[in-house]
Amino acid sequence: MTKKESDQVVDEALRKKGQPVEYLLFADQGHDFLNPENRIRFFEAVDSFFQPLFI
């Protein structure tokens, strides 16, 4: 899936329905997070997403 296609899916499925979206795109990665810095950033975003559910 290209970035444009992915952006379109996110826009149509979430943003147009009023849902907040944090979309992470790493220029040096494909579908896997092999770069350790990107992996850390990904898990920080996951943690931020779930944090309000556990407070």
TrEMBL record:
Domain of life: Bacteria
SUPFAM superfamilies, per database record: alpha/beta-Hydrolases
Name the UniProt record assigns to this protein: Peptidase S9 prolyl oligopeptidase catalytic domain-containing protein
Organism expressing this protein natively: Candidatus Methylacidiphilum infernorum
